[in-house]
Amino acid sequence: NNADEKDKVYKVGVDTTYPPFEFKEGDEYKGIDIDLINTIAKDQGFKIELSPMDFGGIIPAMQAGELDLAIAGMSITDDRKKVVDFSKPYFEAGLSLVVKKNNTEIKTIKDLKGKTVAVKKGTTGATFAQKNAKIEGFKVVQFNDSPSMFQEVSNGNADVLIEDYPVIAYAIAQKDLGLTIVGDRLNGDQYGIAVLKGENKELLDKINKGLQELKKNGKYEEIVNKYLGE
Ligand code: GLN
After folding, report:
1. What is the pTM assigned to this prediction?
2. What residue stretches are annotated with the Solute-binding protein family 3/N-terminal domain (predicted)?
3. Which of 59, 77, 123, 187 to mutate to test the pocket of ligand 1 (most atoms within 8 A of CB)?
4. The CATH number of 95-182 is which of 1.20.140.10, 3.40.190.10, 2.60.40.2250, 2.30.40.10?
5. Pocket-forming residues, ligand 1, beta carbon under 6 Å
6. Nearest to 160 by CA among 150, 175, 173, 171
7. 50-74 pLDDT, tens per residue?
């Protein structure tokens, strides 16, 4: 009934550490995704509570009924559309190959024979690596979060990592990780906000309306510029 609806607090799955989309500063969660979902919720009059977790746990947690929605730099893919409904796209991304700065050997996935490729569990980067590992003859190692994956290449335990372009470009600009992006983007994709398939049509409508409103009133641009500059 209406009273329940009004008091309902939607649980929002977010990645633990995924700047500029989500990250913790002191006790506070910040980032493009965090600001977007807070602003959408305010605009559409619903309450939310953040549940930060490893990215790979988000869709399983939605399926287990532990989350109502997710905003986590999550790419819209046909595979995921089998289990979640996505909002309209809100950000353009795509995968990049990343190597140690002094590496001149690796430029494309054709250069990965015998190499070790670091990816994050449950991501489009992991799927891309798994699909190409046999064909190109490389080994895949998986991590729970992006910083651990970056670390593995920085310290030379892995040769390459695969990460979303906006995320790795931001990380490299913020801090010298000893890493560099090589070659063209491996694909193009778009981020969407996810709700469990077929069960949250009303919520999804609100999210889409809110997103549209934020694009119209300039708040979307304001949020993105706050983290990425003009
Ligand atoms: N965009 C990628 C995906 O959807 C990575 C997301 C993430 O690591 N938070 O799989």
Report:
1. 0.95
2. 9-230
3. 123
4. 3.40.190.10
5. 15, 18, 55, 72-75, 93, 120, 123-124, 164
6. 150
7. 999 999 999 999 999 999 999 999 9
